[in-house]
Specification:
With 310 residues, the chain is α/β, with parallel strands linked by helices. The chain contains ten helices and twelve strands. It has a domain of 94 residues. It has a six-stranded parallel sheet. Strand 1, helix 1 and strand 2 form a beta-alpha-beta unit. Helix 4 packs parallel to helix 5. The N and C termini lie far apart (67 Å).
């Protein structure tokens, strides 16, 4: 068969479902390629992770006998068949990300946060779903997509596999700082860490003791590798947002602002995100009230005027 693939969200981040589907069909002897609207296909798979808030649906015509749509952007009920789910991904689809492995060791999260679909889609209990060798074949970097691996009963085995790999591991979705214990921290310390991500989503949650405790336990001394997502535009005030940002910075963490439904966010929140997430600006301008969004443009204009005078 002739198989066409459409990454509806674009190619800025590898689409794991399409990589697994590609590997599955290639193993069956099928021809697999990115969809070309000048050709006809037996099956075209369209995968979409994000909803209309963050990406637009594919607007072109699809020439195929069968069109199969999947991914969170199309609904929460569609899932890959088990035989495809447990297929080693075809990383060759995204050569620009060569050398990096992507996938999940666990699924689900017990937290049930209102802004997050993981609980509804994957369940309110974290369970192990794969071993590392299912998607890792010696790549230098591993981007782990798990929602809450520290809540998994098999955390010791899974973290041990990551430690034994020797690869650089990026916990992309955030570790639950409330679940860190000395035993878990000891295993995290054995992992070659590219980035530890945490989250402080709800300003009503006092996570300061947990973040301070983690600093006592972690071997990761570079604060740039201790990043904390700060959720904004979801029931928090501007003052609560700044409090979390300043507190994290003062404790020795690297805050990173995430905006819920960004199109509805106040301009003040968007400016705050630009200030915090541009790390050169964030460390140069210590107080948000001193931040000038035209700082970079004015600086370039000043440089141009100075050059003209010379």
């Amino acid at each position: 068969m002739k198989i066409g693939l459409i990454d509806v969200d674009g190619h800025r981040f590898p689409n794991l479902c399409l990589m697994k589907l590609s590997a599955y069909h290639k193993a069956r002897g099928d021809t697999v390629e990115w969809y070309d609207d000048k050709k006809w296909y037996d099956i075209v798979y369209m995968s979409r992770v994000f909803t209309d808030t963050y990406s637009k649906d594919y607007a072109g015509s699809v020439k195929a006998y069968h069109v199969i749509k999947g991914g969170t952007g199309y609904g929460l009920d569609n899932k890959l068949p088990d035989i495809v789910e447990h297929t080693h991904p075809d990383y060759g689809l995204y050569p620009q990300f060569a050398g990096t492995a992507y996938s999940f060791l666990s699924r689900g999260c017990p937290r049930g946060c209102g802004f997050c679909i993981v609980g509804e889609k994957e369940g309110r209990k974290t369970v192990a779903v794969a071993d590392l060798d299912e998607f890792w074949g010696g790549e230098k970097e591993i981007k782990l997509l798990d929602a809450n691996i520290l809540a998994c009963p098999d955390w010791e085995r899974l973290l041990g596999q990551l430690a034994d790999s020797g690869a650089e591991v990026d916990f992309t979705q955030g570790l639950d700082v409330r679940l860190v214990t000395p035993e878990k921290a000891a295993l995290l310390n054995k992992i070659h860490t590219k980035m530890l991500h945490f989250a402080w989503d709800n300003p009503e949650d006092d996570l300061i003791p947990y973040f301070k405790k983690f600093l006592e336990l972690t071997a990761v001394k570079d604060k740039r590798k201790r990043r904390v997502y700060v959720l904004t535009n979801y029931g928090s005030t501007h003052e609560q947002d700044l409090y979390r940002i300043y507190t994290l910075r003062d404790m020795g963490y690297d805050p990173y602002v995430m905006i819920y439904e960004k199109p509805t966010a106040p301009e003040e929140t968007r400016r705050m995100q630009r200030w915090v997430n541009n790390k050169w600006l964030f460390h140069s301008v210590k107080d948000f009230k001193d931040y000038d969004p035209n700082y970079m443009r004015k600086g370039k204009q000043a440089e141009g005027l100075a050059a003209g005078r010379r």
